[in-house]
Amino acid sequence: RDRLGALRYLPAPQRLARTDQALERLTHRQTSALSGMLASSQRRLDRYVDIVASVGLPTGPLTRLPGKAAGGVGGPYVPVQADAPMHFGSLADTLKGSLTLAARAAGVVAALPLGRPAETEETSPFGVRLDPFLRAPALHTGLDFRASYGAPVRATGPGTVVFAGYSGGYGNMVEIEHVSGVTTRYAHLSGFAVTEGDTIAAGDVVGRAGSTGRSTGPHIHYETRIGGDPVDPQRFIAAGARLYGRR
Fold first, then answer.
1. How many CB atoms lie within 10 A of CB 52?
2. Pairing between β-strand 137-140 and β-strand 159-166 as defined by DSSP bridges
3. Phi, psi of 174 (to 5 degrees)
4. CA–CA separation, 71 vs 77, rounded Å?
5. Which of 26, 50, 161, 224 is deepest in the core (most CB within 10 A)?
6. What are phi and psi of 103, to 5 degrees?
7. Are the beta carbons of 227 and 55 closer than 8 angstroms?
8. Residue ranges per structural domain of the chain
9. CATH architecture, domain defined by 122-244
10. What integer pLDDT is reported at residue 1 of this predicted model?
């Protein structure tokens, strides 16, 4: 007699018990699959949030779902037992929220300037240095990159050109607005490849290296700013190297 036939002639209580067992196994498999997907989504979200935090941007908006007020939470820590039952619907809702947050965080990271304006060595770091003209301590608000006259200068991330023109000590300068109040500046250019209002992709040429403005010779002066304040571009370069495996 086949299994279906054997089941058909079992007493009703036993048939129900076997059906419940089959449903329980199915639920366990589905729950295990969702748990694995949730863990993967959380790792992805954590990675992106770490990148955003490392460049100095707030991460709160990336960890809260739209419409979810940031209220107080707490309570004693009670670890979950390995065999504790998990509600499938609750797990599915948690996974949906995690995927939403991970996608949002991925969008922010993709819009950050995590590249380099040129694949050349840096010749002067961000921070206090001796001014090359006055030989007195002064704040260098960006990084200088070695570049020959006319070498291409590339956007380090996607964004919109908000300035392309002459700007005092910067000489010919391009400024790009990215995301979350982040802007980048490319200075001392010998020429422009963009105009104000242009939409830029990472790697697009924005101008050519030169020595206009307050400069001792051809090079690329590169800045990153958050809310208008200069921050060390190495934050962004290091984050990009970690995310994309660059050196």
1. 20
2. unpaired
3. -115, 135
4. 18
5. 224
6. -65, -40
7. no
8. 3-70+84-110, 122-244
9. Distorted Sandwich (2.70)
10. 47
